[in-house]
Specification:
- The complex is a heteropentamer, with one copy of chain A (307 residues), two copies of chain B (349 residues) and two copies of chain C (275 residues).
- By secondary structure, chain A is of the alpha/beta class.
- In chain A, 46% of the residues lie in helices and 17% in strands.
- In chain A, the strands form two sheets. Chain A has a six-stranded mixed beta sheet, sandwiched between helices. A five-stranded parallel beta sheet of chain A has the order 2-1-3-4-5, with helices on both faces.
- Chain B is mainly alpha-helical and 349 residues long.
- Chain B contains 15 helices and four strands.
- The longest helix of chain B is centred in the last third of the chain and has 27 residues.
- Helices cover 37% and strands 24% of the residues of chain C.
- Classes of the chains: A alpha/beta (307), B mainly alpha (349), C alpha/beta (275).
- One adenosine-5'-triphosphate sits at the interface of chains C and D.
- Chains B, E: Part of the binding-protein-dependent transport system for D-xylose. Probably responsible for the translocation of the substrate across the membrane.
- Chains B, E: Keywords: Cell inner membrane, Cell membrane, Membrane, Sugar transport, Transmembrane, Transmembrane helix, Transport.
- Chains B, E: It is found in: Cell membrane.
- Chains B, E: It comes from Catenuloplanes nepalensis.
């Protein structure tokens, strides 16, 4: 019964094989946990750029700043041609990034750490702080009349997630409280969200910080019979569907694919041609809001892991 | 020699009398049960939603899947072993079923059987390596834990290009699966998950096996004194492997429940849960060194954990301090449990 | 077949790491006879019986049961061959109840198929009966073995082996932790088993326990055989002397007493030594 | 002070959960004397000495040392009060080397301040010397105790207690696992300790071991005292009878033998019983 | 009786002869060492950067801080206990020092002493609860683990409003701290972290304490047989508490190294590391049940772990499969270790 194969790719959204022959070796060192939805899209982006341009990509990541610094050191040791780094904790990476720059390796920072990028000697920064995306969510929710928000943190103490929640609160103008759930046990996360809504019926908005949590939050809101509106960071196929169905008000998309793809492309162009897009100014990849109007278009792409 | 045949049982002058209450208090599960009652009372006072039917249904839900795993893990722990790969195996089960159906179009039941076979095979390998190498199960299952974690992510990425498998609700036969694994039973107006029923059944089965079968006797023996067990002819290797496979079966069951409930599964699902299973078993009175414990106790441990983690939310405490409260509650529960047992032991003189 | 002894041990040897525990030891055990293994501490007695009960595998030598070579790869194999053992370290699980230990590895069951279960009541009853017929009056079969006194534990292990022993019963110093009464009961048990036609291997340090009941005596010293003799070839006095030196015992009694001249024990030892 | 006995035990009692182990037991131990504690399995002998060595705390009764009441809250306190014990379960750590076990809890040190360290060489030398003077020839003091034979382990425990015993030496069935030779050595040790002026409490099931060396006999039965007698008040025959019944022993010897009429052991037991 | 005085040592006919190589192979650390050599050889073949001076400096770096903790944790494990709170305590130490200086303006040295005192107090509480309640240390330190995790986050959020403490390099005396905790020593052109030196010293100290002091004797005894140790008068409670405090001290040291190196610290720092410490100790031959193991072994375990985790990066393997490779390497390392020991035991006959 091959009708079971509801997820089989029928058309390829990856955009051809590419024919680049740059042959550079580029290391990408991020702070995203292995298996994190957002960072897996970034990884897809850098790898696609690698195939398109004919570069060799070495992607590694660790949420612990010291380990991330050691991974950068390892890349520098290997004398890579370019380095892409996300800086959730810039201070911790300072020494390692500067060492790379000193070794003559061009560095581009992505996602977080925009403010310190220049100082450490990076060519440019792609993407924006979580703050910008968070503020966009807060503003939009305020526009929708939401006043009492619970922000669902799925990894306690994660710098990026905390920044997102704080930024939502900054522009919301209402009350915001955090709620902790376990991303690795979504079923119990759903119970926890439900418990929060049952316990505090004044809540009229829920913000989740990743696609998978958004889906269980939607189910939790429904089961608790709460009127709360749901917004989320980051996309995945189910989120796109949820937005289409009206279960999710909107999703904010930082276009992680682009952060990865562009970083590799710009490094390649720099090595080949000493080009720097924006002349060293920060290059923004978002935030783009995915709402009911445009959700249908990105659903397919999200399922393919590029949005 | 006047062979002093026993005046059977009753009325030995060397045996002091003991009240039935004290006797009850001495059972390990009962200490845990009192801990559970305390935790319940505590949160019930703080929040009336917590003690409402829908509140109870809500916190019984996470307790139920945790409880099913805790019972299997308790059996394994009584048998003297750990399974650090138990958590990720729930993910492996769900991911395998999901990919086989939604990507490779296999028949739903065939796919479920294949993922069950895979889990049992993993359990077998865990057990086989443990008995053959005589290395601690902690280190062996740590190896399989890491490998499965990598496999779950690597395979999911490879097949789906994302880190999750979706649309499980669109396969044929999903309705039946939903009835078995994820239907709801309405009691007092609140929807109770069917997993709660499975949990109760698992506890009864686990208890029965432990206390009423020869396999149960072997479990206690293997965990209590491996050399002695081997010397009296207990099939040590078979028992150990069977225990690991039981844990894997439970992981398959819970993993399937998850993908049916959520209709999708994350590559990292289940990661880190293995410790919570062990915690539930230990709160319920299982010895970490093996040879002692009970299935009922492990279930109550799961209940305490479920109530505490949801109760903190009902009580409306600051999320930043969530782990602090969780830790404090756990510590208080086990300390209370211990104190009650000591007290009972004192008073039985 | 009828002529072959129940068990024949030929040139057995065993080394642990750097330690040679047993070097070329031979003896025979016949059905309905008791073979006593005697020897100093560390002579290799326990090692010998652990090989016979499948715990250790020998490095050299041969085992014949009823004339046919056997290999006892594990304790289960030995049990299945009808060999039951009381280990010196007893092989009991301290945390488990007496009755569970009693039937460990050989649990009686009732019911069928998936409902086959441990026959609890039967196990408890048999345990109580077997122990009380040994003069051990257990208060509660649910008591964990770990809380029994040394001698009580020993009695449980012996009762278990006697109950399950089919052809060959091995006892490694079963009487050492026992009171005079209980030791008597154990010797009676051994005699009863022998009279039922079982072969018995009995290890002890006490010549007074060994001689009355033994039919054959294997004397070990530092892993080597000092002699493998039938009862007709040796007297109690000789046996005692071989085990410790009779003159020395006599001397000892003198030494221990404060005033040797008036001490009656000295006389007793003297007499014993004379045989 | 001079008149007060080294240790006086008054009305000691102890209950474990539902089990009454000891009920109102009294006796005295004098310096330079040996008090033997005799009794069936489970009589409460080990419980008594565990109270004396600080392992258990009594539920009732009193302990006086040199006339002054003492409370032995833990084993360290007992050791510091000069009481050294050989436990029936030996209290050795199987995974540790012999010499480490020997000095466990009382390690000799050298150096000073932060550089104070375990004096290894001294410990190893003393261990080897003390053991070989007991007739135990250890091959390697680094061998883990768990790989020693039962009797070897026993000897190490005894050698340790004798070495560290200051005022009172307690031995719980020290000879039960020992060969005839080694048992003789232990008895000699006890006599030597006594002659050095130590008080000794000696637990055994063997009247032949107890009588020659004992000055006082405490007979326990099911937790209660059957009598607390000086040597002058009792003969070996009586003692043996009290412990098991002499007639029964005789009968047993008959029973065990295949042909009682010709058996010399029966005669021997008869003689013994007559005293 | 001719008191058979020993013909001291040499020449017992019951002792078979054994080569010095075999003797060497039987030491637990040596098995681990061979595992380490295998892992090194494996990655050295795959990547020449891995075996270059700068490569070595790079993978020695994570091994060093892990190694310092592993030595302390190994001592604790030999003493029969776990400390699940060891990881988060590194965070607690760093956060306390950071907040006290950069927010409350305390003198650097006073702040460091206060955070040390706090860590030692945590260790004391862990040990005290374990010895008083006689509950398994696993469950007690799980409680403190959760509580500290909550405290780290809660306090950091409360004081800084973010989840990290920054600008530690701007406190006075930072230069001295940097020299002690985070300077680099250049050898063969590659910068080696000073933590490596501390690691070596910690290993030597740990080994010395274990094998050459009475405290070391007590550690083995307490972990090997608690009852026996208590009966012969070993100060069991003092030893246990001291072991927990040693672990806390190591956590303070490593936490301080972190904040000095990184000049900032995150609230979740150290979380999850506790398991890796235990893994390193176990790879190095420590028994999970206590009573057996070595400091050197634990250090080699840390080395294996460090080489493997960095080696996978040097080998250029796909990060999605990272955990898979890590698990496979660990399993291979312990299996090789075990195989070598078995082989040595066989051949010594
Ligand atoms: N597993 C083992 N590893 C190393 N050496 C061992 C092992 N088992 C026994 N030995 C050694 O073998 C020798 C014989 O031991 P065995 O236990 O057979 O003596 P035994 O005759 O039973 O002594 P006892 O009368 O004291 O019980 C002893 O010296 C002992 O140290
Ligand atoms: N920790 C304990 N818990 C429960 N019961 C115990 C405990 N220790 C001893 N007992 C019980 O107390 C009684 C006396 O035990 P004890 O060990 O003192 O006997 P004993 O005279 O030394 O016997 P043996 O000669 O066999 O060594 C026994 O019946 C035993 O079951
Ligand atoms: Mg023996
Ligand atoms: Mg006793």
């Amino acid at each position: 019964s091959s009708e079971n194969a509801v997820n089989r790719d029928d058309d390829d959204t990856s955009g051809g094989k590419g024919g680049g022959t740059y042959g550079l070796k580029i290391a990408v060192v991020t702070h995203g946990a292995a298996g994190d939805a957002f960072w897996s899209i970034v990884k897809n982006g850098v790898e696609k750029a690698g195939t398109d341009l004919g570069d060799t990509i070495q992607y590694s990541s660790d949420g612990d700043p010291q380990k991330q610094a050691q991974l950068i050191d390892a890349a520098v040791n290997q004398k890579v041609d370019g380095l892409v780094v996300s800086m959730a904790n810039p201070d911790a990476l300072k020494a390692s990034v500067e060492k790379a720059v000193a070794a003559g390796i061009p560095v581009i920072t992505i996602n977080s750490g925009a403010a310190r990028s220049k100082e450490f000697g990076a060519l440019t920064h792609i993407g924006q702080d979580e703050k910008v995306a968070g503020e966009a969510v807060g503003t939009e929710l305020a526009n929708q009349g939401v006043k009492n928000v619970v922000c669902v943190i799925h990894e306690a103490g994660n710098v990026g997630l905390e920044e997102r929640c704080a930024a939502v609160g900054a522009t919301l103008g209402g009350k915001i409280q955090n709620l902790q759930v376990d991303i690795n046990n979504l079923q119990s996360s759903q119970s926890t969200i439900k418990a929060k809504l049952q316990a505090d019926t004044a809540i009229d908005g829920v913000v989740t910080l990743g696609g998978p949590v958004a889906n269980v939050a939607a189910a939790g809101i429904a089961e608790a019979g709460s009127p709360a509106k749901l917004a989320t960071f980051d996309l995945n196929a189910e989120v796109a569907k949820g937005v289409q169905d009206g279960k999710i008000l909107f999703a904010v998309d930082q276009q992680p694919y682009l952060q990865g793809y562009m970083a590799v492309t710009m490094l390649t162009q720099y090595k080949a041609n000493l080009n720097v897009l924006g002349g060293g100014q920060q290059v923004l990849t978002g935030p783009a809001l995915v709402t009911k109007e445009n959700a249908a278009q990105v659903a397919e792409l999200a399922a393919a892991g590029t949005r | 020699m006047t062979s002093a045949v026993a005046t059977t049982g009753a009325g030995d002058e060397r045996v002091a009398r003991v009240g039935p209450l004290t006797r009850l208090l001495l059972k390990p599960e009962l200490g845990a049960l009192i801990g559970a009652v305390l935790v319940f009372a505590f949160f019930a006072v703080l929040s009336d939603v917590f003690r409402s039917a829908s509140g109870v249904a809500n916190w019984l839900d996470p307790a139920s899947t945790l409880g099913i795993m805790a019972v299997a893990v308790a059996l394994l722990m009584i048998g003297g072993h750990f399974d650090l790969s138990a958590g990720v195996q729930t993910g492996t089960a769900a991911i395998t079923s999901g990919i086989l159906t939604t990507y490779y179009g296999l028949n739903t039941w065939v796919a479920l059987l294949l993922s069950l076979a895979l889990c049992l095979a993993i359990g077998f390998v865990n057990g086989y390596l443990v008995v053959r190498t005589r290395l601690p199960s902690f280190i062996i299952t740590l190896g399989t834990f890491l490998m499965l974690q990598g496999l779950n992510l690597g395979v999911t990425k490879l097949v789906t290009n994302t880190v999750q498998v979706n649309n499980f609700d669109q396969i044929q036969g999903y309705g039946v699966l939903k009835t078995i694994f994820a239907s709801e039973i309405t009691i007092a107006g609140a929807p109770f998950q069917i997993a709660i029923v499975w949990w109760v059944l698992a506890t009864i089965l686990g208890s029965w096996v432990l206390l009423r079968t020869r396999f149960g006797n072997w479990i206690f023996a293997v965990g209590g004194d491996l050399t002695a067990a081997r010397n009296v002819g207990v099939p040590v290797q078979r028992t150990t492997i069977a225990l690991f496979m039981t844990t894997s079966f439970a992981a398959w069951f819970v993993g399937t429940t998850q993908i049916v409930r959520l209709t999708s599964i994350q590559a990292q699902a289940g990661f880190g849960q293995e410790l919570i299973y062990i915690v539930a078993a230990v709160i319920g009175g299982c010895l970490l060194t093996g040879g002692f414990g009970s299935a009922v106790g492990a279930s109550i441990g799961a209940l305490i954990f479920g109530m505490t983690s949801q109760g903190i939310v009902y009580a409306g405490w600051d999320a930043d301090w969530f782990k602090f409260f969780l830790g404090a509650m756990l510590l208080l529960a086990v300390l209370a449990n211990q104190y009650i047992r000591r007290f009972a032991e004192q008073s039985r003189r | 077949m009828t002529d072959a002894p129940l068990l024949e041990i030929k040139n057995l040897s065993k080394t642990f790491g750097t330690v040679i525990s047993l070097a070329g030891v031979s003896t025979t055990v016949r059905a309905g006879e008791v073979t006593c293994v005697l020897g100093d501490n560390g002579a290799g007695k326990s090692t010998l019986i652990k090989i016979l009960s499948g715990v250790h595998r020998p490095d050299g030598g041969e085992l014949l049961m009823n004339g046919a070579p056997v290999s006892l790869g594990n304790p289960r194999a030995a049990l299945d061959a009808g060999i039951a053992t009381v280990y010196q370290d007893l092989a009991m699980v301290s945390l488990m109840a007496i009755w569970r230990n009693f039937f460990l590895g050989s649990e009686p069951t009732k019911g069928w198929g998936p409902f086959r279960r441990f026959d609890r009541q039967k196990a408890i009853d048999i345990t109580r009966r077997e122990l009380s017929s040994m003069g051990i009056d257990i208060r509660d079969p649910e008591q964990p073995v770990g809380t029994l006194s040394g001698g009580e534990r020993q009695s449980v292990a012996i009762a278990r082996a006697v109950y399950f022993g089919a052809k060959l019963l091995i006892l490694d110093e079963p009487t050492s932790a026992l009171g005079v009464k209980q030791a008597g009961v154990v010797l009676r048990y051994i005699a009863a088993a022998r009279d039922r036609g079982l072969g018995v291997i009995f290890i002890t340090h006490n010549p007074h326990h060994a001689y009355p009941i033994g039919d054959r005596f294997l004397l070990l010293n530092r892993g080597r055989s000092l002699g493998d003799l039938a009862k007709s070839e040796i007297s109690l006095a000789e046996l005692t002397r071989l085990m410790a030196g009779g003159a020395e015992l006599e001397e000892l009694a003198h030494e221990l007493a404060r005033d040797p001249s008036t001490d009656e024990t000295a006389r007793l030892y003297q007499e014993e030594a004379k045989g």
